[in-house]
Amino acid sequence: MVETRLIDGKAFAEGLRARIADEVTEFKARTAVTPGLAVVLVGEDPASAVYVRNKGKQTVEAGMASIEHKLAASASQDEVLALVRQLNADPAVHGILVQLPLPAHIDAQAVLATIDPAKDVDGFHVVNAGRLAVGLDALVPCTPLGCILLLKHNLGSLAGLEAVVVGRSNIVGKPLAQLLLREDCTVTIAHSRTRDLPEVCRRADILIGAVGRPEMIRGAWIKPGATVIDVGINRVAKPDGGTRLVGDVAFEEAQGVAGAITPVPGGVGPMTIACLLQNTLTAAKRQVAGGA
Ligand code: NDP
């Protein structure tokens, strides 16, 4: 029986945010520029409103400027595109984030494609995805970046390790696979059409759940001693009528099998905003002369 360590993403993210705040102080003193993050929220989705509020709060706490633009759910695609172009041209804005999902009548790909790749702190623009794929400097999606930081902190070098990423979305699975490849892992990307998923997962020294299905990855699918990163955030009903958050991995079953695992909540989740702040500072450094 393996003793399973908990990977405390909340504590790691707090430390990362403190280091970013120190760097921001130094950057402001050197350049007289305050890094600015603009967040665009279209519509009234309650979960998105909470995310945007938290992003704004943590941006200000890190010493950066938070610029929030709220548009009505009825805003037209042209209005959203015009706002993005205005932010592209604004020298006080170094990072632009358009909160997803957008209302159905707006073409999210067209909006993402309009963001200046140099200000694309979510890393979703095809230019940044392409730069990551060919090994050039890129702004990298925040959640995958957070996973890599946690892995390197816990394992040191990842070179030569077998990594299995379950999920192939453009925002988590694919960029995370690219980042693991950059760290010299041997990477398998699994998805809904993968044959014998349990067997594929059992190969993994690093197992990533990025599926969005509550506790789908079972304890018996985990190689003893493997490091498990659970990206999933799923709200499930409790017997008392309330709800609770669970990941994509059956957390209790993983105890005694995994070498280490991220909890949900408190694992990958807090890393996402910390990495957004990191990307905003990186973008500001690249845009401001002498900022690097
Ligand atoms: P998507 O729905 O975009 O992608 C899910 C992926 O899982 C798809 O590639 C899909 O395969 C695969 N999949 C679905 N069912 C199965 C199955 N039965 N077996 C194997 N693979 C399967 O989700 P996201 O990538 O956006 O998000 C994944 C999870 O991560 C969600 O729970 C989300 O809430 C969470 N998340 C957490 C974040 C954080 O900050 N911690 C940030 C972003 C997401 P296929 O392509 O074949 O359909």
TrEMBL record:
GO terms for molecular function: methenyltetrahydrofolate cyclohydrolase activity; methylenetetrahydrofolate dehydrogenase (NADP+) activity. Keywords: Amino-acid biosynthesis, Histidine biosynthesis, Hydrolase, Methionine biosynthesis, Multifunctional enzyme, NADP, One-carbon metabolism, Oxidoreductase, Purine biosynthesis. Pathway: One-carbon metabolism; tetrahydrofolate interconversion. Residues 141-287 form the Tetrahydrofolate dehydrogenase/cyclohydrolase NAD(P)-binding domain. Its EC number is 1.5.1.5, 3.5.4.9. Residues 7-122 form the Tetrahydrofolate dehydrogenase/cyclohydrolase catalytic domain. GO terms for biological process: L-histidine biosynthetic process; methionine biosynthetic process; purine nucleotide biosynthetic process; tetrahydrofolate interconversion. NADP(+) binds at residues 167-169, 233. GO terms for cellular component: cytosol. It catalyses: (6R)-5,10-methylene-5,6,7,8-tetrahydrofolate + NADP(+) = (6R)-5,10-methenyltetrahydrofolate + NADPH; (6R)-5,10-methenyltetrahydrofolate + H2O = (6R)-10-formyltetrahydrofolate + H(+). Belongs to the tetrahydrofolate dehydrogenase/cyclohydrolase family. Homodimer. Catalyzes the oxidation of 5,10-methylenetetrahydrofolate to 5,10-methenyltetrahydrofolate and then the hydrolysis of 5,10-methenyltetrahydrofolate to 10-formyltetrahydrofolate. This is Bifunctional protein FolD.
